[in-house]
Structure formats: structure tokens, C-alpha cells
Amino acid sequence: MAITFDKALGIHQHALEARVQRAEILANNMANADTPGFKARDLDFQAMMQKAQDSMSGFSMEKTQEGHMDISGGAGDSDLLYRVPNQPSVDGNTVDAQAEQTRFMRNAMDYQASFQFLNSKFAGMTKALKGE
Predict the structure, then answer these.
(1) Longest dimension (CA), the chain
(2) Alpha-carbon distance 16 to 112, whole Å?
């Protein structure tokens, strides 16, 4: 029975990819904090993990007829959500710079945790290959 990376690494690789995508979006929000009319966006991390879990289980939906809706996976615009501001600005910008920095730092810590889980999986596989 062959062991694949997908089975060995579990959901951690998908979590790491989602954290990277979220960091890019949060950085974009912070970069546009002074842009009039800019709407802050964020990812639905839980929905992305559910989609990854479904794809790993092998019980995912697939398009069987031309008339069916396209249900292709990946982090598209469907995973991006607009943030509801606590205190909207006069110019229509919904970015709260301090809240975005807090979210970015929290995401960075979560990225480190996901990375450490993934690193421990690789360390375990290395020990198993070496026979330690």
C-alpha cells in the first residue's frame, strides 16, 4: 500500500495555502486603507478548509452534464467576502487599519502554527524512512 503526500500531510498543506492567500488579501486591504471607496475583503477560512476536506475525502461533487453549474474548486471570488465595517468612513472606505493589522498578525501566527504542523509531519516521515 503506497502512502501519498496527500494522505501523509493531511489538511495542513491546504491550511498553509489558505493562510498565504489570506495574508495577501489582508496586505492588500492595508495598502488601500486610504483609497476612497475601497471595500475591505477577507477569506472564509472555514469554507476553504471544508472544500479541501471534501476534496480529500473523494466524495466531492462533479459536473456530469453540460447544463449543470460549474463547481470547480480553488480559491476564487466565491471565497472572498466583503467585510462589514464597525465604523464606516465618510469616503466609503471600509478598511480599519488597526483591525487589519491585528488580523494580519493573527494570520501570521496561524501560518506559523500550520507550518510547524507540516514540518512535524515531514520530520516524522524522515524518521520513518531512516528507520529511527
Answers:
(1) 64
(2) 9
User: DSSP letters of 100-130?
Assistant: HHHHHHHHHHHHHHHHHHHHHHHHHHHHHHH
Note down the domain range covering 84. 8-51+76-130
Is residue 60 a part of any domain in this protein?
Answer: no
Of 97, 83, 79, whose CA–CA distance to 31 is shortest? 97
Output the pTM of the full model: 0.73
Phi-psi region of 80 (alpha: psi -120 to 50; beta: other; left: phi over 0): beta
Q: Considering only CA atoms, which of 25, 50, 13, 10 is closest in space to residue 107?
A: 25
77-93 pLDDT, tens per residue? Answer: 557 889 888 887 889 99
